[in-house]
Amino acid sequence: MRGRRVGRGVRAGVVFGLAWGSLASGAWAADKENEAEYMATERGISVEQADKRLGWQERAPRLAEVADAELGEAFGGVWIAAGEGDRAKLAVVKGAAMEKARNAIATTGLQDGADIVYVKHGERKLIRIVEWLSSRFEEVDRGAPEVLGAGVRSDLNVVQIDVPRNDNLTAQQRALLAEAKRRHPSAVTFAPYEGRPQPRACAYPHCDPPLRAGIQIHENGVPNCTGSFLARSRSDGVLYQLTAGHCRGANVNWGTRFAGGSYHVIGPFHNAVVGSRGDAGILRVRNPAGWNARAWVFVTAGPDTSRNEAYPILREGTSVVGMRICTTGAFYGRSDCGTVTHLNASIDYGNGVVVRGLGRGNFCGRGGDSGAPMYAGNTAYGIQVAGYRECDSLYQGIRGAEDLMNVDVSFHR
User: What is the spatial distance between Cα 320 and Cα 81, in angstroms, rounded to a whole number?
Assistant: First the structure.
């Protein structure tokens, strides 16, 4: 992961040695068809057009990786422009070698779905600004009634600093905002937010085995968070379930319920990180054979999704602004899809905890949805961790979570 980009990079995960059962190779095609149908309805286009646009979206993160490596400081970011036919936009700093940008597009097979645009600021510069702001948030937010946040808006080519709509700021906070504008007059902008970013740790949310993502998990029997993707240790192959790091409480076993209501232990928290490096944690699965774990998400029915109790995860991916992404929190009541609006966001959880490197989008969640899987196109993108308001939410990129926990998300084959 270069800098603090959400989930930067793609690495092959460890495959569960389990049979597909009823999930034949056609399952992925069926899931993609459903997603295309929903996008077609949202956009007022044909299913064929939606399928083509989803293909562009799937390749856009790879375009960002290739262009970043080729262009370096001249790389300005990649995003999906929903208002322009969902085309990918590759930004380059004026004066950069255009041949490298065109090569990046060709390398990722996006010749018919990507455009090159000029910008003033490189993405690496914007990330450095966010990191500088993040290093100051803990100090200026301490004891303040409201908190500040910041993230990269690739589509606007700026760092967006989030300030409370009620303007209830301290002198220290105002001084930092003034300094940011003075130091980077054309590279920062301010946007109001409502509510307060809160970690979402707090019965449809339960399933019989196999163990999967999107279910409610309980701390010592008390419903508290949402279980995410299954993963295996990079060092010894031990099976874990990912969730949000801030969910970790007392050193007790965590569990869930079967559909009939009986309670069963998953295992204890093995590791958790919440702070400047990110927000991620893992539960050790104590009885892997009994849980018969699968690389599935329990997708519930919603305006953007069809119910699928065994939605397969086939790969992991990175995020770009404008991407359509979905989540299934065990407390919100249904699955929900939205659009990525920020990357590399830094958020003050309060109590001196500033979490960096998050994604932000207009997908919905509520208290208890921390740990919820973020996915689209059978791809794992991250873990929901917090939100300003119900439909203004934040997530930890999956690559960052894997690196923090030293695990690889497991895939179906």
Answer: 11
Residue 9's pLDDT is 32
pLDDT at res. 413: 63
DSSP assignment string, 176-187: HHHHHHHH-TTT
Q: Which of 282, 309, 274, 378 is nearest to 31 (CA)?
A: 378
| Low-confidence stretches of the chain (pLDDT beneath 70) | 1-33, 200-204, 413
What is the reported pLDDT for 259? Answer: 83
In a domain, 273, yes or no: yes
How far apart are alpha carbons 341 and 362 in whole angstroms?
7
In this structure, is residue 24 part of a structural domain?
A: no
Closest C-alpha among 226, 239, 291, 214 to residue 14: 239
d(CA 311, CA 375): 10
Whether the ω angle into residue 210 lies within 30 degrees of 0, i.e. cis, is yes
Q: What is the pLDDT of residue 202?
A: 57
Determine the longest span between alpha carbons in the chain, in angstroms: 64
- 258: in domain: yes
CB 293 within 8 A of CB 266: no
Q: Dig out the tokens for 374 from the structure.
A: 């973020």
- CA–CA–CA angle 247, 251, 252 (5° rounding): 90
Q: How far apart are CA 370 and CA 384, in angstroms?
A: 5
Distance CA 318, CA 161 (A): 23
Burial of 143 (0-12, 13-18, 19+ CB in 10 A): exposed
What CA–CA distance (Å, rounded) separates 315 from 331? 26
Number of domains in the chain: 1
pTM score of the predicted model = 0.82
pLDDT at 32: 59
Task: Supply the range of the domain harboring residue 263.
Answer: 199-409
pLDDT score, position 364: 96
> Which pair of tokens denotes residue 13?
């995960």
What is the distance between the alpha carbons of residues 408 and 13, in angstroms, rounded to a whole number? 5
- 180, 168, 227, 179: which is closest to 201 by C-alpha? 227
**CATH number reported for the structural domain that contains residue 322 in this entry:** 2.40.10.10
Contact 283, 240 (CB under 8 A): yes
Per-residue H/E/C for 125-164: HHHHHHHHHHHHHHHHHCCCCCCCEEEEECCCCEEEEEEE
C-beta atoms surrounding 386 within 10 Å: 27
pLDDT at 204: 66
